[in-house]
Amino acid sequence: MAQLPSPAAAHLPRGLFINSPAGQCSIYESGRMFYAAIADSDRYSLDYAEHARIEEIPRGYDFYAFNYHLFTMQRLDTRRVRDLPGLKLTFVLEVAPGDPFILCPDHFDAYCVVDPTIQLGDPRVHAFPRPLAAAKDLPAYEDQGLPIIGSFGFATPGKNFHRIVRAAAKEFDRAIVRLHVPIASHADPKGERAQEMIDGCRAELRPGIELQVSHDYLGDEELVAWCAQNTLNCFFYERKIPGLAATVDQAVMAGRPLLVSDCATFRHIHPYLGSYPQVSMREAIRDGEQAVQAMQLDWNVAAFSQRFQSVLEKHGVLESAGEREEVKLLEPPPPREGVLLFLNHSAENCGIQQYGAAIAAVLEGSERYELQYREVDDVSEYYRACGELRPELIIYNYGVATMSWLNSSVIHGVAARHLGILHEFREEHLSGLCGDLFDHWVVGDARAEPINPHVSHSSRMIPEFAGSAIAGDIPSFGSFGFGFEDKGFERLVAQVNAEFDTAVVRLHMPRSHFSDPRGERARACIERCKKEITKPGISLEVSEEFLPLQRLLEFLASNSLNAFFYDRAKNIGISSCPDLALAVDRPMAVNRCPMFRHLHRIEPSICIEDRSLREILASGVEPLAELRRSWRAGRVREEYEGIFDRLLGRVSASSLEEVLS
Questions:
Q1: 506 with 447, same domain?
Q2: Domain check: are 401 and 362 in the same one?
Q3: pTM of the predicted model, to two decimals?
Q4: Residue-range definition of the domain harbouring residue 587
Q5: C-beta separation of 134 from 220 below 8 A
């Protein structure tokens, strides 16, 4: 009769570790190492499998731990991973600095990133120490009276084995350089690259320097024993591919002195011992053993297993085990002083997006700050940009609809100051803004008096226009924007129809990505406009193609006058349409809608409630001259730089408005 499991064992969560198919491959070997580190637990059971297709994976487990890699699991449709029950997590090896998603799709519930340097605010991303097992029965190092410099790895680009030979020849009169370059199943099945690399190493030899080469595949324990016989283990990579170099794991386990290049793939090593050539081979031999011992203390199987259990606890698979000693992870690099990250969304057919892109283009001209522009549309892209750039300040071109994924918990873990550009607001709401989402807000309402210490006011910005389009002989009245019911296009058509017998109304009306993707509202607006025409000499021209900025400015420049007659109940910020109309040196008319309140004090008035289109047209561009002089790109850049100075502590002022005064 089969023995029944104990009640405690019957309730243990069951997991399945899924590795790539077996092969002479470092990804596969790393998967075996991960599994060995977490398999033995009294809090869960963990089975092992090697699968490449989602159909092959059995159901019925409480959690699934993948050792996913883009190349070794090409046949795995990661989009269907979500069909599996329970928690789906993956170990991630190929990690760019601060970016765990560069080769790993965003289809898993949690990411166990085997990079102790990665520290993001993303609650799905968990930094792990290296799971280095204690080496057993290592042969004692035998001093042969001359340094033995060792290195190993597959013959993939950027390994720079020849540079090790060159460095040894430079520093020592006599030395042995040992290279172990096995044949890679995936990358170099015929060994052609390996032979090419060895030929390059032989070209660097000098009298007194001996080169020893081996190619037979060695398992982990054999590699550790091989490294233990070297005076110094060296890895001088020069590559920009993601991930940490797994080769140094065996070198650290061997306990012998270690020396690496300044390549980012060794970023977890640099805090312990520096890099070549700042550290010479002789210095590494003298001081490197102590640094390696510190790594062994911080990176081990017990720490890796403990970290894995904490991930299962955070995601509800295991009950919390209470307080435990924190696994030591490396401190994330500090923010880069003077680096700003400007975040926008990617949908170009959006006024908010265009405004943000224009502001970012101006700020990129700053001589005091380095601005990096990124378009992000979800949380993963956000964390990726933050991790890659490590900005001191993040500027958000914010809209509730355009950045619906953003909230205070998302940005909480990012070590930077946060500045939001606010577009949709009522003036009375500004007094209630505080630092609950961003540290500070900026609104481009051209207001001189401060309303709230958490809010700064900037000038509007008129883009530069170098075109020379000229209006035709027949009066033409233009406007542009999405074809919404409150944009007042039909009011413009009715006004032109009432004042003129011969004229053209030209409307540029692209579809809205967010609010009218199929153009239904725009088509209805066009029909309403047609009904306002009662004179045979009045014609209507409508264009719907989305235009880049300069072509849109050309459209505005070809009109006799540009007008914007929004519904007077519309009150959600400041319209950016007049900014563009001001750029082309044509007369402009608006109405008393609150979204044009920054234009209501112009003399003589350009408001249709005060003067007719004929009168405004006859006044020409002189009423707009002062705004065109004031709302220049350079002034906006200076205002933003003042805001940055205050937020980053560059100046001492009681309020941001003092910076701008």
A1: no
A2: yes
A3: 0.54
A4: 476-630
A5: no
Q: Dump pLDDT digits (tens) for 170-198.
A: 999 999 999 999 877 666 678 888 899 99
Structure tokens at 217: 């595949």
> d(Cα 400, Cα 515) in Å, to the nearest integer?
13
8 A C-beta contact, residue 625 and residue 483: no
Handedness of CA 421, 422, 428, 434 (dihedral sign): negative
Alpha carbon distance 42, 60 (integer Å)? 20
Q: Which amino acid is at 140?
A: A
Q: In terms of residues, how long is the chain?
A: 661
Collapsing DSSP states into helix, strand and coil, what is residue 529? helix
The tokens for 224 are 């550790």
Please state, in angstroms and rounded to a whole number, the distance separating the CA atoms of residues 127 and 112. 6
Answer yes or no: do 76 and 123 share one domain: yes
The number of folded domains in the chain is 4
* Tokens found for residue 557: 């420049």
- Residues 597 and 534 placed together within one structural domain of the fold: yes
Q: What is the residue-wise DSSP string for 21-46?
A: PPSS-HHHHHHHHHHHHHS--SS-EE
Q: What would the two tokens of residue 30 be?
A: 């790393």
- What is the helix, strand, coil percentage profile of the chain, to 5? 35, 20, 50
Query: Mind listing the pLDDT tens digit for each residue in 79-116?
Result: 899 899 999 999 998 777 667 777 778 789 999 998 88
Residue 231 shares a structural domain with residue 345: no
Q: What is the 3-state secondary structure (H, E, C) of 242-276?
A: CCCCCHHHHHHHHCCCEEEECCHHHCCCHHHHCCE
